[in-house]
């Protein structure tokens, strides 16, 4: 995904995680190939996962 330019400042927080070395290498390789930062990759992945979780929640039957 392309980094979207923004005109407003977004408040951020630091997320410190530990990943297996091989998984991190795969992320780095993909980011290099796609010319994106690891931060952008992780941000996009979290957004996609949250959207998927929200869709799954809406699929459940309601009483």
What are the defining features of this structure?
extended; 2 helices; mainly alpha; about 0% strand; about 60 residues
Molecular structure report:
This protein is mostly helical and 63 residues long. It has a domain at 36-63. The chain is built from two helices and no strands.
Short description:
This protein has 63 residues and is an all-alpha fold. 57% of the residues lie in helices and 0% in strands.
Task: Describe the secondary-structure layout.
Blueprint lengths: L20 H14 L3 H22 L4
Percentage of residues in DSSP E strands: under 5%
H/E element order: HH
Radius of gyration: 15 Å
The total strand number stands at 0
- What does the main sheet amount to? none
What distance lies between the first and last C-alpha atoms, to the nearest angstrom?
Answer: 38 Å
Tally of contiguous helical segments: 2
User: Which stretches of 5+ consecutive residues score pLDDT under 50?
Assistant: none
Helix percentage: 55-70%
Dominant shape:
extended
Structural class: mainly alpha
Task: Give the averaged pLDDT, no decimals.
Answer: 88
């Amino acid at each position: 995904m392309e980094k979207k330019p923004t005109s407003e400042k977004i408040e951020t927080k630091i997320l410190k995680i530990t990943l297996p070395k091989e998984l991190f290498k795969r992320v780095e390789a993909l980011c290099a190939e796609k010319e994106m930062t690891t931060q952008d990759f992780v941000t996009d992945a979290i957004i996609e996962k949250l959207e998927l979780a929200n869709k799954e929640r809406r699929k459940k039957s309601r009483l």
